[in-house]
TrEMBL record:
Protein name as catalogued: Channel protein TolC
Keyword match Cell membrane: no
Organism: Methylobacterium radiodurans
Lineage of the organism: Bacteria, Pseudomonadati, Pseudomonadota, Alphaproteobacteria, Hyphomicrobiales
UniProt-annotated location(s): Cell outer membrane
NCBIfam families noted in UniProt: type_I_sec_TolC (TIGR01844)
Gene3D superfamilies to which the protein is assigned, alphabetical: Outer membrane efflux proteins (OEP)
Length: 474
């Protein structure tokens, strides 16, 4: 028999308990085991996809600061300096009658330094609507972030339960190989004394070979599940405790689940914020047709503008009013285009509503089916255990063949595997229902982890007038 590492033996002991007591039953002495809740906490804190979505939310926060810059003045300092050399002759009465004029040479160093301030006073409410559009984009991205959180935590539940069930399945199949090896040994002994034929031995050998192939497939599946676990949760699985359904957060009825989902699901809310952003974009483009009013103030200090050793100060305040009349029709086309976009986003929002409703119904049906399958599989396992014991006793007195015993053993194995799968699905789909209504979040389900608040970064940057450093110090 192959040698097992301590970690592997611990996993197999856990798998064996999970098989006998059920994946949802508590295991004594598992204080140091990784729980499903702690795995969710690790996925929440370290999953790359979730952290990338948080970073994108911070990117969208800056859109508000960019939009609000339209309220603020622009200030610029301009400095100009140079050297001018002027040469020529003076015109006098003598030079006009034929005499020589006096030559002159003037060297000046003209310089100008000044500050200019421009302030927008009215631009057709484009700044107001740009800010509104940016805020809607921020809210939409926050809901997208929440949906990414839902998806990440649900994927973590799937990865956790898959490792747990695949470990239990692998142990079952390895135990089955040991049973079939013993069955083959007994069959050969009976063949040697003439109680059975060579056919019985071949049947036992064939069934053993198939069982070993199933062990190899189960090992491969477990390695795949461990890889997915590492990808989503960020660490390798170590001594996983049994997972338990999230029934306390599952609504009492399908209608209640649908009502909650249509009201709270982040995909729906994100789509509605996208509608708001599209409507604000229409207002922004319409503002381009309105008069534009701004004021400019400037102060300049100048030196040697015409003559050397001269200086002066110039100050000005200018108001500018621009009334657009016609610019080729581009603005009108853009407005019509934006209105069609509003219609498209509204249709998309309705599509998302239908999609969320269908998802809730699907998860609810899967959960109900998983509950029924657990009960049926438990009964099937018990019945197959009784049947196998009976077939073995009958085979000892010659009333059953070796093939009958092998078939009974295979049916019991299949029933136990089906029970493991049903118990896994029972847990996964309970989380799936909570995810489909938009409540599988670290905050709502009280995952033991420090919560990330997107509002913190938004408040830090929305009113900043200057600075290139990010709030986290970059």
């Amino acid at each position: 028999m192959r040698r097992r590492t301590p970690a592997t033996r611990a996993a197999f002991r856990l798998a064996g308990l999970a098989v006998t007591a059920g994946l949802t039953a508590g295991l004594p002495g598992q204080a140091a085991a990784e729980s499903l809740e702690s795995a969710l906490a690790k996925a929440y804190a370290g999953n790359p996809q979730l952290n990338a979505s948080r970073a994108l939310t911070r990117v969208r926060d800056e859109d508000v600061a960019i939009a609000q810059s339209g309220y603020r003045p622009t200030v610029g300092i301009n400095v100009q300096a140079g050297v001018t050399q002027t040469e020529g002759n003076t015109l006098s009465a003598q030079s006009i009658t034929g005499g020589a004029g006096r030559s002159i040479a003037i060297l000046t160093k003209p310089a100008t330094a000044g500050i200019t301030i421009n302030q927008n006073l009215f631009n057709g409410f484009q700044t107001d609507n740009n800010t509104r559009r940016a805020e809607s984009g921020v809210y939409s991205q926050r809901e997208t972030l929440r949906f990414t959180e839902l998806s990440t935590l649900y994927s973590a539940v799937q990865a956790y339960m898959n490792v747990l069930s695949d470990t239990a399945t692998l142990e079952l199949r390895r135990n089955n190989v040991e049973v079939l090896e013993e069955q083959l040994r007994q069959t050969r002994d009976r063949f040697n004394v003439g109680e059975v034929t060579r056919t019985d031995v071949a049947q036992a050998e064939a069934r053993l070979a198939g069982a070993r192939a199933e062990v190899s497939a189960a090992e491969s599946q477990l390695r795949t599940s461990i890889g997915v676990y590492r990808q989503i949760i960020g660490v390798d699985p170590r001594q996983l405790a049994p997972g338990r359904p999230l029934d306390r957060y599952v609504p009492a009825s399908l209608d209640a689940a649908i009502a909650i989902g249509l009201k709270e699901h982040p995909q729906i809310l994100s789509a509605l914020h996208a509608v708001d952003a599209s409507e604000a974009q229409v207002k922004v483009l319409e503002g381009a047709l309105a008069p534009q009013l701004s004021v400019q103030g400037a102060v300049q200090q100048f030196y040697d503008q015409q003559l050397p050793n001269t200086q002066g100060v110039a100050a000005s305040i200018l108001g500018r009013l621009t009334i657009p009349i016609y610019q080729g029709g581009q603005e009108y086309a853009q407005i019509r285009q934006a209105k069609e976009t509003v219609g498209q986003t509204r249709i998309q929002a309705e599509f998302v509503r239908d999609q969320v409703r269908a998802q809730i119904v699907s998860f609810w049906g899967n959960l109900e089916a998983a509950k029924a399958r657990v009960i049926a599989s438990q009964a099937q396992v018990q019945a197959n255990e009784v049947a196998l014991n009976g077939v073995r006793e009958e085979a000892r007195v010659g009333q059953r063949t070796t093939l009958d015993v092998l078939n009974a053993q295979q049916e019991l194995l299949n029933a136990r595997v089906n029970l493991i799968v049903a118990q896994r699905d029972r847990v996964i789909f309970s989380y799936g229902v909570v995810q489909s209504i938009g409540r599988l979040t670290a905050r709502f389900t009280a995952v033991p982890v420090a919560l990330y608040s997107p509002k913190t970064h938004f408040d830090q940057v929305k009113d900043l007038w200057f600075g290139v450093g990010t709030p986290d110090g970059r």
